[in-house]
């Protein structure tokens, strides 16, 4: 119990004015007692302080008057001790005023005597700081710059002075620190200060614990969980799932064939993370005719006829773009390699041809030059030429690729066969193979290679005698 001596001031009250001529002593006595002490706790001794004889206390009916309610203190009529009558809550009586004093009147009768007794109720740390809510959610944009401040709700503590909220603490977090503004009169305002930029794509939500501490010993605390939701900013471009895309495509792929599905993802949220695909700006219009790109799925389809012989390799620039207010874009080149299919038959061309071949031509005489071409590549374009083996002609490959010469195998005889119809057959090595054929007509021209021949040799004939001169004998 702490006794506080204050300067003795004479009090003039309504009661003392009325009855001043009766009272013989008007003093002010001041006691102090902690709030919340147990009933029966002694505060002081009235008899001693007023200089009254203990014996007269009961006689003169000493009592405590405190408004119309039951007083918080009573006096023992035998020994004059003033003691606590009921539990006293300082905050209930005085709220947050710095000094809390209860004024009592000690009344004695015969003659009526009133003494003022003040009891100061001393604060004890019977309240903990508390926040208006246990949990508070706030949203901070990931574009917020370090140094940005965010006001937090303050905690209240019903105790006064040093026993009220004295400090705030924040759970350790690399992104935030706490700044407390002291507004005087026990009003301290906590502010959350951004220390390091937020990145929604790495941490969507931060959970912080704000602790308010009072100045008691030991200090009481109150906590509030602060949830910081990080709101999105379009700060990530779409990223393709593959470093490079290449695909093989048969040249005879029908319209509607899926060529490839490309896929790009964007870490941002909502429309900032929605990806659409399109052809790059510089894409050849012919590519746009032959391929379709689904902007949503990223599937590239065949939309027209492909021709390996025309284009064997295509590079298509694709753009993935998000739907942010200021869209972010990423380019990628798709390589399409067209695979040849055996769709071209060999073409036979007779480049030189002597129409009529003298029958006495030496073996090996060139009759015609034949060239074959096949637009396909590889085996599909590898051509083998042949003619019927029974003919007196040979097809000999020349040094030049795909060139043949048609030569005579041996001497010919117009008188035996005056004309040949040669079928040149060309076949590629594709699977299945394609072939073509061409007819060449060769006419054998006559040479004077035959002596007149008598039908009989020798001729033997009979001539009748007595012929007239000049008469035919024989033919
Ligand atoms: C705050 O939390 C405490 C302890 O978890 C709980 O008893 C109390 O009801 C909560 N108050 C509110 C307003 O949620
Ligand atoms: C507030 O949080 C701190 C730190 O976790 C803890 O020591 C303290 O007991 C908490 N106070 C209350 C009233 O829950
Ligand atoms: C914060 O984020 C959580 C989880 O994503 C969500 O449930 C809550 O509604 C958000 N709060 C606010 C205020 O945005
Ligand atoms: C794209 O890739 C992402 C991440 O790998 C995946 O979740 C998503 O399903 C893919 N989309 C398609 C259409 O394949």
What brief labels describe this structure?
Immunoglobulin-like, four-stranded mixed beta sheet, mainly beta, rod-shaped, 475 residues, 6% helix, 40% strand, binds 2-acetamido-2-deoxy-beta-D-glucopyranose, single chain
Task: Outline the fold blueprint.
Elements: H1 14-19, E1 28-34, E2 42-45, H2 46-50, H3 54-59, E3 63-65, E4 73-75, E5 81-84, H4 90-94, E6 101-108, E7 113-122, E8 135-141, E9 149-151, E10 165-170, E11 176-182, E12 188-194, E13 205-214, E14 221-231, E15 239-240, E16 245-250, E17 258-261, E18 264-265, E19 275-279, H5 285-290, E20 291-293, E21 299-302, E22 313-322, E23 329-339, E24 347-353, E25 356-358, E26 366-373, E27 383-386, E28 393-397, E29 403-408, E30 419-428, E31 435-445
The structure holds 2-acetamido-2-deoxy-beta-D-glucopyranose (4 copies).
Give unreliable regions as ranges: 1-26
Report the CATH superfamily of the largest domain.
Answer: Cadherins
Outline, from the CA principal axes? Answer: rod-shaped
Count of beta strands = 31
Distance between the termini: 181 Å
Subcellular location: Cell membrane
Protein name: Protocadherin alpha-13
Domain Cadherin: 25-131, 132-240, 241-348, 349-454
Pfam families: Cadherin, Cadherin_2
